[in-house]
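Our collaborator T.R. sent over the components below with a one-line note: 'Predict the complex.' Nothing else. No constraints on interfaces, no templates requested, no preferences about which chain binds where. So this is a plain run: every listed entity goes in together, and whatever single assembly comes back becomes the starting point for the next discussion.
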Amino acid sequence: MTAVTDATAAAESEAFPPDVVFRVKDLDCYYGSHRAVRYVTMDVREREITAMIGPSGCGKTTVLRCFNRMNDLIEGARATGTLLFRGVNLYDSRVDPVEVRRRVGMVFQKPNPFPKSIFDNVAYGPRIAGAVPKRELPDIVEASLRRAALFDEVKDRLKDSAIGLSGGQQQRLCIARAIATSPDVLLMDEPCSALDPISTAHIEELMHTLKEEYTIVIVTHNMQQAARISDRTAFYTAEVDSETNVRYGLLVEFDTTEKIFSNPSDERTENYVTGRFG
Amino acid sequence: MRLGRVFDDRTRKAVTSTVYKRTRDVKGAIFRTLLQVALLVALLVLAVLLVDTVLDGWSVLDGRLGDFLAGGLRSQSGDPELGVFQGIRGSLWIAVFVIVLAFPLGIGAAIYLEEYAPRSRLTSFIELNIRNLAGVPSVVYGLLGLAIFVRGLEDITGGKSVTAAGITLAVLVLPIVIITSSEAIRAVPGALREAGYGAGATKWEVIRTQILPYAAPGILTGTLLSLSRAIGEAAPLILVGAVTGFLGGQSGLLDVTQLQERFTAMPIVITRWVQQSGRDGGFATAAAAAIVVMLVVVLLLNSAAIFLRNHFEKKR
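Returned assembly:
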């Protein structure tokens, strides 16, 4: 039995293109018995920004939270289908979700710094991973804060509480915290929805630089944002199951951002991106 | 221009006539007064009680406080060795048992229920029962203590000892500790948990580095209040055999050999002296003084709770 699985895995990895970070195929997400998201098939490519857009309740956040197994924290949540992270099935029983989250960092919708000092926030991941000698922590913290374009603003008060920062600064701190463990991928769940336009511009600029080193998957409600920053876009929508009469989310179209916004193949996508939807 | 000004004035008048009108919030005012009365009545009752007790016990508190704190149970109120030392000693040991047994067990159970236990019918059934246990009259716990800790485990506890009493009261406050700790843990924002898990922390790391520090002030307040309750209980102690008459032996405050010996505690001392005051009026004064001593002890405990809570709140 195991031999068969291993053989399949070997065959998969052989055929696996090196620039594909996540390969999603026929992924379905369930909450209990409710099949909440259906028919998700998309590839996330290395050093690209992949945006997921769509109306509320279309499942984009649910799919994003599969990428680092965050949905495990919700009781009754599970996924079926294929979700490969660099060729490895993320939902394989041998996969340790904690290790996945160290390699796939996450930034949340509302800035959620720990009620600790700025330094301790960024040092949190490396500290619990335990892979870094203590004397190297200050360097890692500084480098992470620099990459998150926050260092110059906070360098004189690293010992101050992170709660005293502005919303935009807090979100950049959360980005610094996420990249301090040097992950492969950054997942961002509507990272600007709680921020003002100037902070939003900061974060978007930051994503452009981060793209040189990281693969980014972002969920956003803001279509202009997706159009501005992303290389590829996945459009999700919500539909009602004609048999059971329950709402579910599904992936409608996945393509280059240019194609999605200028010449989408699906009518539903076109209606949404041109604003004729809802 | 002139017309414009007239128009402006009119608009202004129209606006002032509405916004300057004082809407009388009569119901609100009545409600507010009622609340103030409620607070006043509560404070007044407390103040009367306190002043009355202090006045009653004043001759002891003022005259022979040192001897009173060092003395023991005696049959005559005029006995110069009459005092509350044995009561304080017993209550102190009971507090030690509650801290050592009920706090870790209760907080541990709360962490398990909130963080590890699956959301199943069994879990909610257990939670419901813990809530019910918190409402069980303390006499029932006294019976339990008598059956299990005094008789059943006599070899360990030494029968009617401070050990049996301490364990009984620890069991009595255990449900309260679990409930208050659970509530404190439940109040930790979900965003904090997600942030921890998202940064690659294991469950244990999230609990240790995020949830417990955040919940610490709440857990502390609840547990220390339950300690005050344990120290104030008299009914279960009577059942597990607290001494009400003469208690011999003069072990020191921290002498562990007394753990298996007969004991008494502050609420018992007070109850006993109040009962005796009909026969010997001097006991009324002694009881009042003992109440003041016990109030001071409980007050010190609560101050410690508040101090620690503020300390942890600053840290989180």
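Summary for T.R.: Residues 1-5 of chain A have pLDDT under 50 and may be disordered.
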